Amino acid sequence: MLRNHALASALAIGLSAVACSAPPEGDELVDEIDPSVVTDLDRVFAAAAAETGVPADLLAAIGHVETRWQMVSGEAEHDGMPTSVGVMGIRSTVADRAAARAGVDSEELALDVEANIRAAALLLADEAAAQGVSGTDLAAWAPVLAAWSGIDDPDAVAQYVQGDVYGTLVSGVEERAESGELIAAVPPHPELAAISGVAVPKAGTADYPASVWRPSPNYNSRGGHRVSHVVIHTCEGNYAGCWGWLRNSAAGASAHYVVNASGSEITQLVREANRAWHVAASYACSRNGNTDCGKNGVSVNSFSVGIEHAGFASQTTWATGLIEASTKLTCDITRSHGIPRDRHHIVGHGQLQPWNRTDPGANWPWTRYLDRVRAHCGGGGGGTTPPPSGTAIVVDSNNANNDMAKAKIELTGAWSAATSTPGFYGSGYYFGATDQVSAPATFWFHLSSAQSRTVDAWWTAGSNRSTAATFIAYNAGGAEVGRSAKNQTAGGGAWQQLGTYNFTAGWNKVVLSRWAAPGKVVIADAVRIR
Length: 530
Prior knowledge:
Layout: H1 41-52, H2 56-67, E1 84-85, E2 90-91, H3 95-102, H4 106-111, H5 113-131, H6 142-149, H7 154-171, E3 173-176, E4 182-186, E5 212-213, E6 219-220, E7 229-232, H8 239-246, E8 257-259, E9 266-268, E10 275-276, E11 304-309, H9 320-337, E12 346-348, H10 349-352, H11 366-376, E13 393-396, E14 407-411, E15 416-418, E16 429-433, E17 441-447, E18 451-458, E19 469-474, E20 480-486, E21 496-503, E22 506-512, E23 521-524, E24 526-529
Parallel strand pairs: 5-9, 7-11, 7-12, 8-11
Antiparallel strand pairs: 1-2, 3-4, 6-10, 8-9, 13-24, 14-17, 15-16, 16-23, 17-22, 18-21, 18-24, 19-20, 19-22
Helix pairs in contact: 1-2, 1-5, 2-7, 3-5, 5-6, 6-7, 7-8, 9-11
């Protein structure tokens, strides 16, 4: 048997993996782990089809709907909700039977690629035999798919069978590893177009116009609490199974939104004005950068909007479409409720409930996610009404994000780029060690005329930061017009006002000095002139 262990460098007979690496110790940690990707699955699907009589393309389509052909190990997202393992997303409700049917143990079912696919094929073949289904006519397998889904909600079953599995078969799909190696492919089956797709409720009945309204009874009042956070979850399963479960009154759980694996559809289950049941924890600011400590002891559900995503905390990659759809949604939520667009207010489920949840997982692309949220919202940090269009100038620490005709950063001396501490603006930040040296970060900005402007700075907070990081403002003639020393151990992930100064026409600047006793760092992230 072949095993896809997370740290394996390769798998025998054509199944390969890229090794995962653990993040280093210390204050500046990397925030993403290199993925492990299984390839050459078409051969395995074909072998399982030859043995069981379940069509190979049907097996591949199921695997793509369940996991996007990734070897996953699902955790419990909500109490009572089945977990799933392997490429085929075999649910805990049938895992023992699947393992016995394939003659393997539970570990092999979860870690062995061939065993997982073969076990799923055997269970599907058993169900097909019970229903009198056989052969290569893919349309005839619909009742088998319905049983395989494990979903009780009739609308969600229809979504899974017609919209998801047959939709995948109609359009076809191909996935490749970053190296270019083929993971698997399903050719298009246009002959199934008549049975694919599913009627959905009318759009425009939810808070977010791009979402489909599928109401859940599992909610209550926020009790007067204002929405101030967005919580990112993974369903630990497929899209239809997720929203089907969360609108079941017996589940005792819900979320405001569920995003499908490709980002092509979003379901809203609970109004943003109401309290969904998605985090089983009270807030503790020590788990969230010691921010919003006044909320300590308050249920996270009371002040947050929860977004579930089809997929798993253990998966290695996320579809671009899912990230785009989710970040547009999160932008809309932050804009509606005045939520800061940083890692202290857009947070992971596992961050707030770490004793038994890890979602959205180590490979969720937090840096790219926050960058896209800000981009969809016009680049601002959120939480406050932005200045009128055309009046504010933001100078980011990455010149790729700047309009170089009016904003640019210049670094002198040794500065290191980082994305590890949450709460940064744009796509990252720089940190430099304090020392008695003139080696600053200079934020340049151009004004067409002499103006009085208010200047704000953005940084990431941490215990190793300077308590007196000095920002010095100069006009275009080089004269100092003001300075402000800021404590960067606090106040991260938000605009902090430095002062209001009189600038002149031309290139003015705000300089972040490193001149201080050694032993600390200063953070050069972004400066806003408004």
